[in-house]
Amino acid sequence: MTTGDEKTESLPESKLPSNENSPLLQNPDEEITGGSYSGAVFNLSTTIIGAGIMALPATMKVLGLGVGIGMIVLVAVLTEAAVEMLLRFSRAGNAASFGGVMGDAFGRGGKVVFQLCILVNNVGTLIVYMIILGDVLSGTASSGAHHTGVLEGWFGENWWNGRLFVLFVSTIFVFAPLISLKRIDSLRYSSTLAVGLAGVFLVITAGITAVKISHGDISMPRLLPVLTDLTSVWNLFTVVPVLVTAFICHFNVHTINNELKKSSMIQPVVRTSLILCSSVYILTSLFGFLLFGDSTLDDVLANFDTDLGIPYSSLLSDIVRISYALHLMLVFPIIFHPLRINFDDLFFPSSRPLDLDNRRFALITFGLISVIFLGANFIPSIWDVFQFSGATATVCIGFIFPAAIVLRDRHGIATSKDKTLSVFMIGLAVFANLIAIYSDAVALLKKSVSPHA
Known about the structure:
Residues 1-29 are annotated as: Disordered. By secondary structure, the protein is an all-alpha fold.
């Protein structure tokens, strides 16, 4: 299988092999048509716009709007550059997956390291989705004060609208059917709806903000961070993992590319998706921070449990929270898809294709969703997950691995510009995330010893 422009001419899409290098898990006798441009844009945009959007207003609280928006643009530009280099080296090495490119550059060891990072990143991301879903429907107390969930606000506190039961029901009746789909292009309609629901959240938040501005209830936001001592400087770097996580989509680019009718479409797909998602991120960060200022929580949806000071405040707050909860439910299978493929190839590399082994498919799916479910019920805050996975596995997938592939340059196609950019990306990623890990470790240490002081 090739990933160049001639891929559809060399082998019919319906006869493509089903393994971790193939874009999907499918029946070899099933006739499959190529994915459309719009479907690819929505699937990639859905991969990008996930839980990160809910934490971005909190990053504005740390950075200020001016620096924060600038950082969103910078990370988007670096993401496009990383994906472009990744696709170029995929074509040169005839690799049809991110893991294949890593294997081509660094051998089996490089591929295994990549797959381990996918496991950490995607499991962490999906845990965040479930945490947010629990926050929205059942409430949260991770910030010290209890914030009422939608179901709790409607019906009061009951055993059946508690976090554990709500997440269990959501897993059985929503997540399980969606993650049972074996082809990512089958999710194009749910992805379109997911992006639309994110738009509903953005439009309503913008409308609430506009009304409050017209009433003079919102003051000029901070454009720059507040720096009082060295600790406040180090704290600036804690937002880096969140920003990196917000744009991570690299693990699905090959899958979407391999399902496209023409490979030449993938770069415009990536660019369109990044422009769309960057715009949504900037506007969400702007309106979210304008609304709640320094009271913005790690998960901004939790802020919508209060009276917003406008007509129909309660109704609008519920629509905002429910629309984004539904959005995350529809994003969930897009992130689960590459997680299952890479898990299978990592632990069962010599087994027959996963789509031909229903028992193994079911066991892997059940095992992964169980781990995610347990993690969502025992980890209190999305910020904790972002800091761990974002500063380790996610930054490797997003920037360090693509740059390392360029510097390895097994096929002699890297330009001096490519190598300079790659050194910059690795240096920036390592420096920023080491400081982020240090700052978070110090903060956690202080939090753990403060009750005994």
